Each structure stands twice: as C-alpha cells, then as structure tokens.
Amino acid sequence: MTLEQTLPICIAGTWRLGGGERYASCYPATGEPVAWLNAASLEDVEAAVQGAHLAFLHSGWAQRKPHERAAVLYRIAGLIRERAEELAQLQRQDNGKPINETRALVASAAGTFQFFAAACETLEETITPSRGDFVSMSVYEPMGVVAAITPWNSPIASEAQKVAPALAGGNAVVIKPAEITPLLALQLARICEDAGLPKGLVSVLPGKGSLLGDALTRHPLVKRVSFTGGTRTGKHIAHIAADKMMPVSLELGGKSPTIVLDDADLDHAVAGVLYGIFSSSGEACIAGSRLFVARALYERFMARLTAAAAQLRLGDPADERTQMGPLISAGHRASVERYVALGLAEGGRLRLGGERPSGGLYDQGYFYPPTILEGLGNHQQVCQEEIFGPVLVALPFDSEEDLLAQANDSLYALAAGIWSRDYKRAWALGRKLQAGTVWINTYKQFSISTPFGGWRDSGLGREKGRLGILQYMEQKSLYWGMNQQPLAWAGVEAGQ
Ligand code: NDP
Q1: Which among 36, 79, 193, 450 has the fewest CB atoms less than 10 Å away?
Q2: pLDDT value at position 4?
Q3: How far is the CA of 150 from the centre of ligand 1 (A)?
C-alpha cells in the first residue's frame, strides 16, 4: 500500500473504506502524513454494532469454553510479539513517542493478552455456602457488544487493556480509537483476525469522538462502555450510561502529587520525579505534575532536578537515545503553551524551559522542552488543571499536615508518589493520600496484575487485575433445588 492509497477500516468482519471524510494520520515529529484513511460514518457505526451483535449471537465465541477462548488470546499475544518491531515503528509515527517507549507499549499489549488469556482459563465461578435445601452458585455471563473508546497517548496498550478482557469474557468489541491515532487499533483488528478470532467480533471506527463515540455510547445494542480519556468526555459518557442503566468504566485525567520528604534518597527522588513528569513528554494521565518538596530540602533538590531535566534528550523519536519526543499536535502544544503563560500571569517563575526549541527537526514537529514552574500556590489554575504536557509545578511544604492538605486538594485523585527512606512514615502518608495508585520510592511502574483506576474526577471503576474480566461480564446467581419434597408453602405432597 502506498501513502496515497486510502487504508481500509475494519467493520463487522469486512475491510473496506470508511464512509466518512478522508483524513491523514500525521507524524508529530514532522507534521507529515503517515497514512490516509476515511473516517467511519454514522452508517458504519450502525454496521459495526449490528455486525458485532450478530457475531456475538452466532459465532459461538460466547459459548466456547474459557480455555478455548484463551487459546485465541494467546495467539493474539504471540502475533503482537512476532510483529512487535513493525507495530512499534508504526506507533512511533502515529503518535510521535520515542521508539523505546513504543516498543515497551507493544510489549505491554502482548503481555495484556497473555495475562487475560491466563485469567480467562483459570477464572473460578463459586459455589456459595448453602443456607437451604439447594446448591447455590455465582457464575458470570458475557454481556454482548462492548464499546472501547481510547485516547491518543498510548495506542495499542490502551486498546489491549479493554479488548483483551472483553474478548476473554466472551463479548464482541467495537473500538473507537482517537481520531488522530487510528493505526494501531486497525493493526490490532488485523491481528485478531489472523489469530482466528471469529469475524465481526472486533470492529474499528476511526474518526471524531463527538460523532462516532457518542453514537456508539448511545446505541441500544452496546451493553457496556470502557472509556479512557478526558474528564469532560467521561462525564458526558456517564450521563448517557445513566440513562441506559449501562455499566461504564472511566479512566480519566489526573494532577498527581509527587512528594519528596526531607529524608528522601535524592538520587532516587530526582530520577523518579523526572521520569514521572517528563517521560512520554508529560502526555500521561498519571504524570506526577505537582511536585511537593520539604522546604528544608527545596533549594538543594530543585537545583539537582533542574540540572538533570536540562540534560534530557528531546528530539527524533526514531533515535533510541531520545527521551522525549514531540507533543501530539500543534493544537495541543498551543494548549500547553497557554498553560505556561497562565502560570506566569498567576505570579509563577520559570525555573526551566518554557520556550519552544528551534532549528532542524524542532522547526517541523511539535516539540516542547521540559518546563518547571515555581512560586505558585496549589490553589492556582496551573496547579489544579491537567496540562498533559512536560510542565512540572514545584511547591515547597512545611509539615506533613500542610502537605496532605495540599496534595489532597484536587478534583483529581489518580496517582501519587512518595520519596522517603523511612518506610513506616511513607506507609502512613501513603494510606492518607487520596489516589487510585500510590507509588513509594518509585513512580509510573505498572503491572497488568494490579488494578488501576482513579477516584473523584479521575474516574470510575478499575481496569487490569485478574478480576478485570468480570468488568465485562454480568454476574448471575444460580440455585439448584435439592429438596426431597415439594416446597412446603404450597401444601403439595409428594406422589399425590
Ligand atoms: P478525550 O476525552 O478528548 O478523547 C478520548 C476519546 O474519546 C477519543 O477517542 C475521543 O475521540 C473520544 N470522544 C471525544 N468526544 C466523545 C464523545 N462525546 N463521546 C464519546 N467519545 C468521545 O481525551 P484526549 O484525547 O484529549 O486524551 C487525553 C485525556 O485522556 C487526558 O485527560 C488524560 O488524562 C486521559 N487519559 C487517562 C488515562 C487513564 O487511564 N486514567 C490514560 C490516558 C489518558 P476524538 O479523538 O475524536 O476526540
């Protein structure tokens, strides 16, 4: 396929051109097109959902034994691994992340399919303690058509976290990837097909969320939505779901505090804080974007942090030494710049960065350097709103009481980090922080075996973990009568 050709999209088991407008997925490091495709249309949404519904009813997938479904999921994991380099390079072009990072995301997607394959074939249904003349059981049934709506920052890893448990649970899935990063979801659909998944069980609808994602969420045959994205969109989806009495999981934004106590190991803390905010160019929901440092340590720590941040390699995502690539789009970079300007207008000072780099590739792509703001209060807008870029706000604190009040004073509650040599102190603080995930002496480490999600405006529900499959299944209680006699209430005697 040449660049000028239009990529087909996967709808109800058929690869064909989308019915919507033609557009390009562009490489954020140069702004140049990587591939052209037609967005899906509303008719395509209908076809994908109807096709998924039919595949759910008639392909036999839902009826396959768990170990049989698992066998297909293991094959998907294997094919992702076989095609890993090709996928990682494509993802680098689709969203501009450095190649080392996209390799890790592809590996994580394979691991996710493998994990949910294992979870699927070992998932236990329970015989519950009987309280009468019956055997009682708790079992799980597939739901039907599931919608997976994903953002642009971690394609394939985000999709895998939804598609793998949904398929393991016996469902069909319609994926709505971010409009600007559609390519990996399409590759995943191809891999599912090549692994022998029945046709129609996975469809992909590239294009605008406000049109396609909305229609998908409202569709009566869609029985569950798993969404990752911004809080405003998440709330919109939650309203629709409430009207349909439909379960949803919402993985939303964050403004996570990362805390350096006065007894921290400074080498570890500097490395962890840098990684927490500047890896993925800060385009991460769990970015440690609010830094709290014990006042006694503040100047010393900030001097080291700033010096190390200034050395980070911002540049060509294809270069294995690159630590930070470009931001996703010109529009997003402009939004990050507006936040930095707002921080300065609010009385903040720039400790580092804050200006677009120039020359060479920097003039073509949407690059923005590591930026550190200080001199602000936690109540100010740049400390409260998610910037989703490489911008750290640094705040000194005086006591743990003062720290806790500030750290928990946020609409978001997705993650937090603590750096301290005193594990008892870190434990006590970690228990008091309001967040879905707390890292102690580490940051941004993930395991598919550990549940993930946010409190408050950071989301609803959890993904990952062995029981992640149950999010995509309906629980059912079964009672098996063991009475020798008819139920007494009716007064019917046996044999009469
Ligand atoms: P958006 O909420 O704008 O988009 C996420 C997805 O939802 C996209 O596919 C988008 O389509 C779609 N969408 C947009 N409007 C609607 C709608 N009305 N109905 C249904 N779907 C819709 O988020 P961003 O793309 O800006 O992603 C960044 C956000 O994602 C950040 O806030 C970040 O914190 C959050 N995020 C959360 C994570 C978590 O696990 N908690 C992980 C990663 C990111 P389109 O592309 O057309 O806009």
Answers
A1: 450
A2: 73
A3: 6
pTM assigned to the model: 0.97
The rounded distance, in Å, linking the Cα atoms of 255 and 257 is 7
Nearest to 223 by CA among 160, 164, 173, 177: 173
CA-based radius of gyration for the chain: 25
Q: How confident is the model at residue 493 (pLDDT cuts 50, 70, 90)?
A: confident
DSSP states of 366-394: -----EEEES--TTSHHHHS---SSEEEE
Cα angle, residue 287 at apex, residues 285 and 291 outer, rounded to 5°? 140
- Distance in angstroms (rounded) separating the CA atoms of residues 315 and 214: 36
Tell the residue nearest (CA) to atom 10 of ligand 1: 209
Q: Which of 393, 330, 392, 375 is nearest to 356 (CA)?
A: 330
- Tell me the H-state helices in 285-422: 298-310, 330-345, 381-384, 400-407
Whether pLDDT at 1 is above 80: no
Domain chopping of the chain, boundaries = 6-252+458-478, 257-440
What residues pair up with 438 in beta bridges, in sequence order?
A: 416
The domain over range 257-440 is classified in CATH as 3.40.309.10: yes
Please state, in angstroms and rounded to a whole number, the distance separating the CA atoms of residues 30 and 472. Answer: 40
For residue 228, the CA-to-ligand 1 centroid distance in Å is: 6
Catalogue the active-site residues: 251, 285
Answer yes or no: same fold for 6-252+458-478 and 257-440.
no
Whole-number Å distance between alpha carbons of 337 and 340 = 5
Check if 413 has its Cβ closer than 6 Å to any atom of ligand 1: no
Tens digit of each residue's pLDDT (9 = 90 or more) over 165-187:
999 999 999 999 999 999 999 99
Residue 55: how many other CB atoms lie within 10 Å: 24
Residue nearest to atom 11 of ligand 1 (CA): 209
In this structure, CATH architecture of domain 6-252+458-478: 3-Layer(aba) Sandwich (3.40)
- Give tens-digit pLDDT for 413-459: 999 999 999 999 999 999 999 999 999 999 999 999 999 999 999 99
- What is the 36 CA–ligand 1 centroid distance (Å)? 22
> 420 C-alpha to center of ligand 1: Å?
34
Q: What is the rounded distance in angstroms from the CA atom of residue 113 to the CA atom of residue 230? A: 25
Residue 210, ligand 1, Cβ within 6 A: yes
> In the predicted model, what is the mean pLDDT of the chain?
97
What burial letters (b/e) apply to 208-244, b meaning 16+ CB within 10 Å? Answer: bbebbbbbbbbbebbbbbbbbbbbebbebbbebbeeb
Position in ligand 1 atom list of the atom nearest CA 253 = 34
Kindly state the helix (H) or strand (E) to which residue 82 belongs, with its residue range. helix 66-82
Q: What is the pLDDT of residue 161?
A: 97
Answer yes or no: is pLDDT of 472 > 70: yes
Sign of the torsion formed by the C-alpha atoms of 402, 440, 386 and 242? negative
Report whether residue 95 contacts ligand 1, using a CB cutoff of 6 Å. no
